[in-house]
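F.,

This is the one I mentioned.
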């Protein structure tokens, strides 16, 4: 699994293993800010290291807060008691909503001149409801772009109104983002007076408010509440460091691994969250259970397996309690029988991207039937999940969710995989540790070494699919001849390579429904294939075709580049060779079997000519600029000079089983 601008995930066969989760982004950023607002020094352990937490750490340092890194995931924060030392600053907060919204409220109520901005998408994410509530408290906040959206300017001094008898009341809408209420609650202790926050409309993402309240309590501030209707912060409330505090594992990130266990057999165990977690997304496990998955859990771990029936079933679920993890369910629905409906997910539309629209678009690419509404998505699983290039919209959760689609028969391509750095920088490496790809045995070697025959027989004995990659280029040459495509027309050849129908059946090869005979082995066809093989667009098109042969239960691939370029993750790589003399004799015997009339007395002369030809070809092949003949790194050398074909086959099988 290598990553550039895209990541090609091979078709996945199963999932099994244990994953220790990274710290929760939501908890990490809450604790970092509360530590800065508190009196005293806080040591924070298991902090998530990601783009979002880096934005918060950078902002706190810019504001003059003492932040030191003790170890990889351990930070020490010297609290400033709500009085930031730096009173004038410009903060760039990327696309980190868990940093932007709470910092807006904290800076507005602490007094100072600040400008807050982010990436273009952050400037499309609404913040008007939070700003309105802060203005009710007397703050001076101005929009520097479109009204209701970042970037923002906060002006000082923060006016201190005359003391109010009883409690002050402000309102905030609850149906757009729970981060607005979180930001208000976390900042209100800075006021020093009693404020009641009334929630207008239904409050979404309630579990994230539970996290906020739990974290505030750890720092000494208890919020009085009336259900989900109102929350009151009393006068005199102030944050005091708990000394040391741990960040829970990220329950949203747990969803991808639990889902892998439910789809790919399992068991997959995640450590870092469990039944005692304060995060609402741990209830994702309940949703998987409704779909038939086998779930077990303890105080700090959870585990998932495939249903006893062998197939997940569709569900109809209100997802208000698992707003982020519900995205994972949308991809799990590809593997469920029937139509899955996920409701009450309006908050998806104001996240890193419009997640309802993005999810619908990408699910349709892989073959699902999708219906989307203002606050729901409905997914009917396809008969077969198709390979597609998944766009991720600079949204970490899109990339991680669609990694699960690689459990389809054709694998999956993830564009811009590095976007996972927002919350889980090494996600794909960790994912690779618990999944098993459809196995590939890659066999290469010089001309007449017997690699094609050995590969074909190994595939037969294992019940695997077979790919003769050299035949693909000869088939393209043959198809070009049939369709009148010139061998120097790179674009036309690439298009032909992408659409020609190829089938291997034992020793027979079929092109576009017609059995290819001796013409495929002719010198003319081989020469034409060599001309086409050096064209980059042709090689790229045939690379995709070669990947498509990788299907359950496995593949044996014979030919150049198989172990190094096409299937670098092959579980077994074999470089099959033999002496030039042995190969010449084998080639002669093959010709005799075909021609039957070759005279015995001419055997020596014929072998000499073949030997010269083989040595010349070895020299040409080893000097080629494209796909030169060489033993790939990690490939085992198998010298068959003194072996029969059957003995060579058994050695390859023994290596694979070992």
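My design for it:
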């Amino acid at each position: 699994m290598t990553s550039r601008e895209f990541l090609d995930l091979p078709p996945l066969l199963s999932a099994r293993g244990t994953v220790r989760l990274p710290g929760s982004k939501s908890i990490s950023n809450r604790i970092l800010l509360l530590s800065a607002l508190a009196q005293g020094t806080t040591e924070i352990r298991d902090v998530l290291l990601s783009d979002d937490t880096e934005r918060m750490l950078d902002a706190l340092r810019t504001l003059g807060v003492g932040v030191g890194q003790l170890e990889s995931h351990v930070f020490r924060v010297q609290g400033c008691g709500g009085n930031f030392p730096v009173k004038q600053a410009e903060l760039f907060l990327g696309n980190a909503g868990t940093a932007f919204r709470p910092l807006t409220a904290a800076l507005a109520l602490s007094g100072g001149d600040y400008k807050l901005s982010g990436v273009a998408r952050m400037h499309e994410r609404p913040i008007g409801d939070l700003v309105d509530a802060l203005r009710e408290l007397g703050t001076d906040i101005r929009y520097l772009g479109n009204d209701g959206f970042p970037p923002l300017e906060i002006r000082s001094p923060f006016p201190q109104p005359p003391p109010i008898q009883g409690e002050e009341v402000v309102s905030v809408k609850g149906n757009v983002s729970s981060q607005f209420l979180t930001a208000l609650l976390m900042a209100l202790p800075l006021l020093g007076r009693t404020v009641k926050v009334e929630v207008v409309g239904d409050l979404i993402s309630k579990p994230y408010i539970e996290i906020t309240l739990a974290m505030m309590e750890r720092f000494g501030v208890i919020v009085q509440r009336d259900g989900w209707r109102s929350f009151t912060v009393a006068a005199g409330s102030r944050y005091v460091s708990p000394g040391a505090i741990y960040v829970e594992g990220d329950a949203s990130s747990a969803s991808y691994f639990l889902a892998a266990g439910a789809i790919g057999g399992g068991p997959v165990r995640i450590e870092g969250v469990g039944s005692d977690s304060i995060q609402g997304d741990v209830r994702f496990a309940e949703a998987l259970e409704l779909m038939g998955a086998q779930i077990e859990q303890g105080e700090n771990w959870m585990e998932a397996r495939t249903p006893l029936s062998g197939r997940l079933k569709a569900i109809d679920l209100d997802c208000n309690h698992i707003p982020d993890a519900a995205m994972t369910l949308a991809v799990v629905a590809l593997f469920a029988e029937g139509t899955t409906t996920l409701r009450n997910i309006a908050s998806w539309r104001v996240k890193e991207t419009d997640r309802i629209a993005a999810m619908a678009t990408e699910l349709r690419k892989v073959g699902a039937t999708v219906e989307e509404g203002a606050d729901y998505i409905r997914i009917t699983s396809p008969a077969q999940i198709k390979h597609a290039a998944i766009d991720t919209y600079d949204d970490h959760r899109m990339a991680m969710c669609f990694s699960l689609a690689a459990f389809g028969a054709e694998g999956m391509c993830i564009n811009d995989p590095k976007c996972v750095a927002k919350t889980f920088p090494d996600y794909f490496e960790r994912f690779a540790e618990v999944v098993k790809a459809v196995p590939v045995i890659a066999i290469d070697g010089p001309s007449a070494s017997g690699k094609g025959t050995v590969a074909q027989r190994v595939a037969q004995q294992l019940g695997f699919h077979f790919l003769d990659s050299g035949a693909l280029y000869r088939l393209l040459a043959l198809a070009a001849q049939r369709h009148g495509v010139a061998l120097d027309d790179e674009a036309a050849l690439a298009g032909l390579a992408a659409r020609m129908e190829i089938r291997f059946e034992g020793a027979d090869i079929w092109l576009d429904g017609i059995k290819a005979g001796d013409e495929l082995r002719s010198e003319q066809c081989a020469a034409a294939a060599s001309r086409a093989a050096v064209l980059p667009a042709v090689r790229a098109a045939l690379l995709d075709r070669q990947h498509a042969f990788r299907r359950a239960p496995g593949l044996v691939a014979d030919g150049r580049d198989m172990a190094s370029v096409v299937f670098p993750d092959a579980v077994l790589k074999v470089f099959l060779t033999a002496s030039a003399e042995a190969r010449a004799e084998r080639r002669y015997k093959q010709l005799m079997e075909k021609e039957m009339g070759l005279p015995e007395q001419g055997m020596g002369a014929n072998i000499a000519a073949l030997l010269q030809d083989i040595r010349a070809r070895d020299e040409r092949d080893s000097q080629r600029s494209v796909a030169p003949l060489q033993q790939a790194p990690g490939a085992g050398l198998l010298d068959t000079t003194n072996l029969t074909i059957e003995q060579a086959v058994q050695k390859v099988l023994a290596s694979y089983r070992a």
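The CA atoms of residues 348 and 355 lie 5 Å apart.

Talk soon.
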